[in-house]
Amino acid sequence: MAKEKKSHAMPDFDWDTADDKGFGTGYTAADRARMEQMYETTLSPVQEKEVVRGAVVGITDREVILNIGFKSDGIVSSNEFRDLPNLKIGDEVEVYVENQEDAQGQLVLSRKKAKVITAWDNIQKSFEEDLVMDATVKRRTKGGLIVDVYGIEAFLPGSQIDVKPIRDFDVFVGKRMEVKVVKINHANDNVVVSHKVLIEKDLEAQRQLILNNLEKGQVLEGVIKNMTNFGAFIDLGGVDGLLHITDISWGRIGHPSELLSLDQKTNVVVLDFDEEKKRISLGLKQLQAHPWDSLSEDMVVGAKVKGRIVNVADYGAFLEIMPGVEGLIHVSEMSWSQHLRNPQEFLSVNDELEAVILTLDRQERKMSLGIKQLTEDPWTQAELKDKYAIGSRHTGIVRNLTNFGLFIELEEGIDGLVHVSDLSWTKKIKHPSDFIKVGDNLDVVVLELDADNRRLALGHKQLEENPWDTFESIFEVGSVHRCTLLSKGDKFATLELPYGIEGIATLKNIAKEDGSMPETGESLDCMVLEFSKEEKKIVLSHTKVWQGGTVEEKAPKRSSPKPAESAPAKDTKEGDKSTFGDLDVLSALKEQMEDTEKKEKKSAKEEKAEKEQKEAE
């Protein structure tokens, strides 16, 4: 008989309910609201390009997984956490949201960018609110230091490190210091910080205390913080004062470093104080007695002193006998020579020499010195009269030219005058510059010596015999010679005769036979109308030559006139002509006499000018 199979009946399934609108439709409105609230609390809104805080939920060898409350976690490279070697799960850090979802649906985060943005926000806040920040000196750079502020490199200028100049920046590398932001350049991402401003605030109270108690004549202790060509700046404890180079020592110095050094402590006295400008003038030499007050009694006029040349000027040089005691050596007291020259030709700075005191005023603290007094005055030499006896010959250097002559230096301190008329026997020299130049050597002969008045008259033409003694027989009146026209004036012409001698002629006496006038440089035959050895003058005529006349038959007669006789008017005119000679000759003689008178007047003027020149010398 077949066994009866047991069957288990399944409960009936409500298919109508399963085919309804879908999953979750069985919640009531209250349940749905409660569940939505629970879901929203697990998520937070995240915006791109902003900094948020995230919790570390995982750490691997290469990555750090962060939960920022978004629908997915973010992954950041572990290289960006090198500054946090002890990072562990559960720690919170700031990260920057670069992208909510990349191509793989991953949340992209960056801790490096978050640090930069946070650092700039902190720097900006410190700048606006004048806050103090901690900084670490990373390295030295040109002109200052590079410091790390919140991970940003900032520049600390050398002038902003301390109130006193810093000469060695390397000592600050690796150290920490407090700074304040003084400038931000967002365009170039540059930050400038200062440590000096913090120190200045501490010193302000100390500075004000010093200024309130400052008085002239007060002696203070200071530290030399800087030196320049014109002086040194002294730090008096928060207040700087200027120690001018002239107030460092009673003697002359070229630079403060000759007596002072940086960071040296020294006592100074307050010379002046400007409260408004807060300028303090200091002195160092005033703490010592003035050297003039302790000057030896042996220092008298005529005494010899030794010293060092400290300055050379156009008018002389200053000799330092001791620090603070100087004397002036005028250029006229450097040499017996009468020709003033540049003092630099005699002396140089730092030369050590001996001098004679000429004047001394202890009250005014002035002294004049002389060098030439160490040697004998050449005008007082015993052998002077024998050495420069009248007629003796010498060679000297032309030192000066004047309208009336030239001065020659025969030796140092001995000068002589050569008058322009004593330069040449034959040539008429209007100015010595036509004959010689300054600095040339010239042979002379002594004409006159007056040692008492320091005057020496010299001559150059006297080295040769007077050629006019010979010319008197060569250029006799009536003789004819070949001449060269040198120049023509308004009334007279100058001609050159043989032997280089010059003669004159009126313009009408040089006219040619055809009535034309000769040109300069042209040669003419001329007759001597007059010869004067005393005046060194020869009067010529070319007209007489071609007219065929002679001087003798035209010479004026000096015999007494005969008694008047009746004669026709025509005869009287002819008699006058034969008695007084050629009117041309008389006219030339008249002009000659006028010319001689002018020369005498000119000679008087020259003598007066010479006298004034010698008095000036």
Kindly describe this structure.
This protein has nine helices and 30 strands. By secondary structure, it is of the alpha+beta class. The chain folds into six domains: 83 residues, OB fold (Dihydrolipoamide Acetyltransferase, E2P), CATH 2.40.50; 70 residues, Nucleic acid-binding proteins (OB fold (Dihydrolipoamide Acetyltransferase, E2P), Beta Barrel); 74 residues, Nucleic acid-binding proteins (OB fold (Dihydrolipoamide Acetyltransferase, E2P), Beta Barrel); 72 residues, Beta Barrel (OB fold (Dihydrolipoamide Acetyltransferase, E2P)), CATH 2.40.50.140; 82 residues, Nucleic acid-binding proteins (OB fold (Dihydrolipoamide Acetyltransferase, E2P), Beta Barrel); 80 residues, Nucleic acid-binding proteins (OB fold (Dihydrolipoamide Acetyltransferase, E2P), Beta Barrel). Strands 1-2-3-5-4 form a five-stranded mixed beta barrel.
Task: Spell out the blueprint of helices and strands.
Layout: H1 15-18, H2 29-41, E1 51-59, E2 63-67, E3 74-77, E4 92-99, E5 107-110, H3 111-129, E6 133-141, E7 144-149, E8 152-157, E9 176-185, E10 190-194, H4 196-212, E11 219-228, E12 231-235, E13 240-244, E14 265-274, E15 279-283, E16 304-312, E17 316-322, E18 325-330, E19 352-361, E20 366-370, H5 384-387, E21 393-401, E22 405-411, E23 414-419, E24 441-450, E25 455-459, H6 468-474, E26 480-488, E27 492-496, E28 502-506, E29 523-532, E30 537-541, H7 543-547, H8 569-580, H9 583-616
Parallel strand pairs: 3-5, 13-15, 18-20, 23-25
Antiparallel strand pairs: 1-2, 1-4, 2-3, 4-5, 6-7, 6-9, 7-8, 9-10, 11-12, 11-14, 12-13, 14-15, 16-17, 16-19, 17-18, 19-20, 21-22, 21-24, 22-23, 24-25, 26-27, 26-29, 27-28, 29-30
